[in-house]
Amino acid sequence: MNKWLLPERSEYMKWELPMVEVFETVEGEGTRAGFPTVFVRVFHCNLRCSWCDTPYSYAPDKAEYTGSIEAIVDQISQYKSRQICFTGGEPLIHREKSMALLQAMVDLPHIEDIHIETNGAIDLTPYEAVRLEDKKWQEKVRFVMDYKLPDSGEQHRMLHENFNLLDTQDEIKFVIGSDEDFTVATDVVAKHHDKGQVLYSPVWETMPPHKLVEKILEAGLSKVKLSMQLHKIIWDPNKRGV
Ligand SMILES: Nc1nc2[nH]cc(C(=O)O)c2c(=O)[nH]1
Ligand code: SF4
Ligand SMILES: [Mg+2]
Fold first, then answer.
1. Pairing of strands 171-176, 113-118
2. What's the family (predicted)?
3. Cβ of 54 below 6 Å from ligand 1
């Protein structure tokens, strides 16, 4: 069941969310890397990963502005991209407001793909319930669920039940910072993974990509996909809004 029945569209389009930025670039990560994409980055996160590259998206920093759902989708519509990366912070932390923004984005006719960069510590049940019932959500909405490994300091927050909610169009991303992270990721996949593309992505500062590739091949992980953060290769790794 959908826990959060939304009010009339005219009502929820007025709802406001704390925002960091909306911008257009190419997707840097995952199976859709390289495609022109609008990024919708909302403020707030329930985790504090040691290697986080977007600390400006939660306290003690402040939201850049507060945007109504109407204004956010208006801005998305000004770009030509057919793909949206809904990210943060944690994009699903705003509960019914996150749901309403997703609905408004799904309703944009030119949008073909909305992927939700969620952190593994948010119960996906209410969103998956809507996707099961709604054809447009099935066509457009995909979870990209991060599984936080020991180096992040947040592994204890991971909700393993989320694995059962993922489908073939979804992705599970493991950001790997050390040999221990690699071992734990591979154990978690063996134990919990059912559907969705598994991605291994190196922590920029501590895991040289060539080492991660060697480890993937050595372990015979033939279904794992390497995901490099293209935006950190194309631009200065500290540059925002790219
Ligand atoms: N180009 C680009 N691709 C990305 N994929 C995921 C991102 C994120 O910050 O969640 C991101 C980002 O910030 N930039
Ligand atoms: S979940 Fe994402 S935004 Fe939140 S602290 Fe971790 S890396 Fe940063
Ligand atoms: Mg992110």
1. unpaired
2. Belongs to the radical SAM superfamily. 7-carboxy-7-deazaguanine synthase family.
3. yes
